[in-house]
TrEMBL record:
The keyword Protease does not apply. This is Plastocyanin-like domain-containing protein. It comes from Vigna angularis var. angularis. It holds the Pfam family Cu-oxidase_2. GO terms for molecular function: copper ion binding; oxidoreductase activity. The chain crosses the membrane at residues 118-134. Belongs to the multicopper oxidase family. InterPro entries: Cu-oxidase_C (IPR011706), Cupredoxin (IPR008972). Residues 86-106 are annotated as: Disordered. Signal peptide: none annotated. The lineage of its organism: Eukaryota, Viridiplantae, Streptophyta, Embryophyta, Tracheophyta. Residues 2-68 form the Plastocyanin-like domain. Keywords: Membrane, Transmembrane, Transmembrane helix.
Length: 135
């Protein structure tokens, strides 16, 4: 927390080693607060004011925490007391496939790529043996 305008020098005073764990921060008139956020799960995070009038003015900050793993099972399900808008009905679960798909033969492009890599490995091996034999 500080008074007046924030500056780069104020970053040297941040407590990054054992910060206080809180769910709210007070900002005094004419002041500022630096907030260290540790989002521990992927998804959307909402940082907002407790002042209801500010919500309708769009004074909210949404932060998306990205996860490179596209597995949707890692995201936590919504809580059972989630408030929904209007006549929302959750989508019906997708039916399980009745017949498992049969594996297909590799494409000719995959075979050509494999042959090309094998050829490059063999040429590299021959060049290495030739180089060792010369020296």
């Amino acid at each position: 927390m500080g008074e007046g305008e924030w500056s780069l020098e104020s970053r040297l005073t941040y407590n990054l080693y054992d910060p206080v764990g809180r769910s709210s921060v007070q900002v005094y008139p004419g002041g500022w607060s630096a907030v260290y956020v540790y989002p521990d799960n992927p998804g959307m995070w909402n940082l907002r004011s407790q002042n209801l009038q500010s919500w309708y003015l769009g004074e909210e900050l949404y932060v998306r925490v990205y996860d490179a793993d596209p597995n949707p099972a890692k995201e936590k399900p919504p809580p059972p007391n989630l408030l929904l808008c209007g006549k929302y009905e959750p989508p019906a679960p997708t039916p399980a496939p009745s017949v498992s798909p049969t594996p297909s033969a590799p494409s000719s492009n995959a075979c050509n790529l494999h042959k090309t890599r094998y050829l490059i490995a063999m040429i590299t091996t021959v060049i290495c043996f030739f180089y060792i034999g010369v020296h």
